[in-house]
Structures are given as C-alpha cells and as structure tokens.
Amino acid sequence: MRILLDTHILLWAAADKLPPGAAKYVEDNANTLLFSSASIWEIVKKRGLGRTDFVIDPASLYSGLLSAGYQELPITGKQTLLVAGLPPLHKDPFDRILLAGAMAEGIPILTADEELARYPGSVIYVGA
C-alpha cells in the first residue's frame, strides 16, 4: 500500500521514536512510503522559528528519506485546489496541503494528529 506520512511521523521515524501504531505501517516492507515536499518546507519554516520539535537538519532528512527508499510527493496545483474544498477542521496550512496531497493521489495519510484525523477519507490515525 502507498502511504503518505505526515511531518511528525517523518520526524519520529528519523529519530527512531515511532509510536507502535505508526511503526507497524512504516516498518512493513509491503508499504511504499511517501513524504510530501510540504513536510520539508514545514521543517525548514518551523526550524527557522526556533521550534524545539523541529531541530533536525532538513537537508539531511531529505537525503536520508530518499536514501531509505521513500518517495517524494511534490506539491501540485491539483493539491492546492483541493485545499479550498476542505472543511475548516484544521487551521495548519501544512497539514491541509498534506491531506490534499493524499487525496489527490488517492492514498491514505498516516498521522498522529487528532485534528487531521477528523477529516473524512483515508486518514490512518495512530495516536502519539
């Protein structure tokens, strides 16, 4: 199964601190793991703001994800248009574009974000 990982799942995977619910998806070799360029952008932005939960070097994370076989999902115009149709359940623009990316690809997004999990569709909520 192809699965888009949200930003926090990516950060936890990079730090080997995945919650068990997420680990079962990430460690399953039958799954194809994707990350959005929006996640790299989010890490750059929030790291620049000094957020302590975004201390990883985004360039190292990016190259590490590609080396580990993750596939990059670029941001497209189709995705940005889908954001306009999302109900206002979540205010974080990064999470909204991640969800739209998963919707555009017809794949689930793996998240530990309770607000993101409130959206209808293919959201796999794993808790923290």
What is the C-alpha radius of gyration, as a whole number of Å?
14 Å
What is the second-level CATH architecture?
3-Layer(aba) Sandwich
Share in β-strands = 5-15%
The H-and-E topology, N to C, reads as EHHEHHEHHEE
How many discrete structural domains?
Answer: 1
- How many individual helices? 6
Indicate the low-confidence ranges by residue numbers: none
What order do the helices and strands come in, and which of them pair?
Layout lengths: L1 E4 L1 H8 L5 H7 L5 E5 H12 L9 H10 L3 E3 L3 H8 L8 H13 L3 E3 L11 E3 L3
Parallel strand pairs: 1-2, 1-4, 2-3, 4-5
Structure, described:
By secondary structure, the protein is an alpha/beta fold. It has a single domain (2-125), classed as 5'-nuclease (Rossmann fold), CATH 3.40.50. Helix content is 45%, strand content 14%. The chain is built from six helices and five strands, in the order βααβααβααββ. It has helices spanning 7-14, 20-26, 37-48, 58-67, 77-84, 93-105, and strands at residues 2-5, 32-36, 71-73, 109-111, 123-125. Strands 3-2-1-4-5 form a five-stranded parallel beta sheet, with helices on both faces. Helix 5 (77-84) packs across helix 6. It starts with a strand and ends with a strand. The model has no long low-confidence stretch (mean pLDDT 95).
